[in-house]
Amino acid sequence: MKLYGIPLSGHAHRAHLFLKLLNLPHEYVQVNLAAGEHQQQPFLSMNPFGEIPVLQDGDVTLADSNAILVYLAAKYDDSGRWLPREPVAAAKVQRWLSVAAGKIAYGPAAARLVTVFNAPRDHETAKTIAAHLFDVMEQELQGRHWLAGEHATIADIAGYSYIAHAPEGGVSLKPYPNIRAWLDNVRALPGFVGMPATQAGLAPEAV
Questions:
Q1: What does the alpha-carbon distance between residue 179 and residue 199 come to, in Å, rounded to a whole number?
Q2: pLDDT per residue over 100-140, tens digit each?
Q3: Which of 131, 148, 172, 199 has the fewest Cβ atoms within 10 Å of its own Cβ atom?
Q4: What is the pLDDT of residues 130-141, one digit of tens each?
Q5: Which helix (H) or strand (E) holds 115?
Q6: What angle do CA 14, 17, 19 make, to 5 degrees?
Q7: How many CB atoms lie within 10 A of CB 151?
Q8: Considering the domain boundaries, does residue 205 fall inside one?
């Protein structure tokens, strides 16, 4: 199994973290984004959108971090805990995968793109989206350990990376004790591996 990405990508970290949590042997192949490797062949044959991460598992090639989480959970987690099969539980997980692809991507992830990678994004708008998202999450995590149920699911894995590193994008986590506790719960999972921190934004205050 091979995972193509870069260490500072939260999308790639989602996939890498879940591979570690499932204890699945794999090779991490770093893609040279600065040289435009992701916009050239053979990478484009794996993902025509030219985006990381990409997972190769035998004759299966998958792009998109959330799709990779779904695939790994469905194929390698026989317990069904990471991706529940019961309809309501499955829908709750899907809700947070949609949040990861929407509000997290346009909020804390986009804010971090500006400060870490100097990306041409509207930093203030991204921070506003992140703050609203965190306000909602703080309430939803009241009295709960996990986003979508009584145990960890891929909803938590999809949400963790960019939220944990939100201070790097200039978005403080100090006002959100429930979110910080949830992040600690994810870090306590057996096999957890973190994403490298940067010195951008409010990184020194990151939890």
A1: 22
A2: 999 999 999 999 999 999 999 999 999 999 999 999 999 99
A3: 199
A4: 999 999 999 999
A5: helix 110-117
A6: 110
A7: 12
A8: no
Residue of 186, 102, 181, 176 whose CA lies nearest to 139: 176
The strand pair at 54-57 and 60-63 is best described as antiparallel
| One domain, residues 120 and 177 | yes
| Three-state SS at 54 | strand
Look at the chain and report how many structural domains it folds into.
2
CB 138 within 8 Å of CB 169:
no
Q: Are residues 154 and 182 in the same domain?
A: yes
Beta carbons within 10 angstroms of residue 184's beta carbon: 12
Residue type, 40: Q
The DSSP string of 55-107 is EEETTEEEESHHHHHHHHHHHH-TT-SSS--SHHHHHHHHHHHHHIIIIIIII
| Same domain flag for 130 and 56 | no
- Based on the fold, state whether residues 12 and 65 are members of the same structural domain: yes
